[in-house]
Structure formats: C-alpha cells, structure tokens
Write a structure and sequence with these properties.
By secondary structure, this protein is mostly helical. It folds into two domains: 1-64 and 140-175, no CATH class; 67-139, no CATH class. Helix content is 53%, strand content 9%. The protein has helices at 4-27, 34-38, 60-65, 95-107, 121-135, 144-172; strands spanning 40-45, 50-55, 67-68, 136-137. The strands form two sheets. It has a two-stranded antiparallel sheet with strand order 1-2. Strands 3-4 form a two-stranded antiparallel ribbon. Helix 1 (4-27) packs antiparallel against helix 6 (144-172) and helix 4 packs across helix 5 (121-135). The radius of gyration is 22 Å and the shape is elongated.
C-alpha cells in the first residue's frame, strides 16, 4: 500500500523541524557551523512502516539537551535532567579535551594575558575544559523545541493523510 499523503506530511514535518532547528542555532549565534550544516533528515518507506531519521553531528544531542557538570547543572534548564554528564566514565577519555583543542585551533581563537601576551592553546584548553567539566553545558533545545512543536502542528495532518491513503486503498483498491 502506498501512503503518498502520509509521506508528504512526514516530509513537511521533517523540513519544518530542520528549518526551525537551523533558525534556533542562528539565533544563538551557532549558525553556519558544522552542526548547522549537518542537519538533515532521511525518510525510509518500508512495507508497513515509515522511518524518519534526523541526522546531525555526533555532538548535536549534547548541545540540545545540555550536559550536567560536576558542580553546577544549570537548574533553570533541562541540563539538570539531562542524561549526559561529565565524568560518568561512559565516554572516551580525553574526548572533551580533544574537541576543545580542535575547536580552538580551527577558530584560531587566542586570549591575551594582562601584559598583552598570547596565552598558549594548551593553557586555554585547560581553562575551558575545567570550566565546562565543573559547570556543565546549558541546554539549548535547538532541536527538541521544533520537534515537539512540529508534532503539535502537524499531528492531525498526519492522521488525516493516513486516513486518506487508507480510504483510497479501500475505495479504489490502490496498492
């Protein structure tokens, strides 16, 4: 059975989520980066199922849900409830350090000390990693908000699209 109406609504939903997620990243001055450019989706139509998969960089869920730090967890956001936590021992050793080091070198980001001298990448990396490890990362919800809102906005349309497809199959015998 072909579910053309349902597939169209699912495509519409996925495009809405991606567009809104990119808008949210832009509003938080995170637009144009690798996370922004990696946002996409894939719809796989199988015999009795639709599989909608949203794709993004591996660190996207951490930006979206936030990460609990050792001390502070940003209680005003969902980071306090996040499943992600630094120091849990589940991630690769040194992953945060490598990621921050790559980010600093990619951006060619440098701080100066009180005398105007550049601080080394190693020292900057240490300071940033310690701050993030203890403080955590605030939840951004760039993806979660449009995902949930899209379901609210288009959930009824999905049901109607499915009903129309089933009705066509019953009345016209389409497969």
């Amino acid at each position: 059975m072909k579910y053309e109406n349902l597939k169209n609504i699912i495509d519409k939903y996925a495009k809405y989520v991606i567009q809104q997620a990119k808008t949210n990243l832009s509003k938080d001055d995170k637009g144009g980066g690798t996370l922004y450019n990696s946002l996409s989706y894939d719809v796989d139509v199988e015999t009795n199922a639709f599989l909608l998969e949203f794709l993004m960089e591996d660190y996207g869920p951490f930006v979206d849900k936030g990460v609990r730090g050792l001390n502070s967890t940003y209680p005003e956001t969902r980071a306090a409830l996040s499943q992600f936590r630094y120091g849990s021992g589940t991630g690769p050793k040194g992953g945060l350090t490598k990621g921050i080091d790559n980010w600093l070198r990619q951006k060619k980001f440098r701080w100066r000390d009180d005398l105007g001298r550049f601080i080394s990448y190693k020292s900057m990396r240490y300071l940033i990693v310690q701050k993030i490890y203890h403080q955590g990362l605030k939840a951004n919800l760039f993806f979660t908000k449009p995902f949930e809102k899209g379901l609210q906005l288009l959930g009824d349309e999905m049901l109607e699209g499915f009903a129309l497809d089933v009705e066509k199959q019953l009345i016209f015998g389409q497969k």
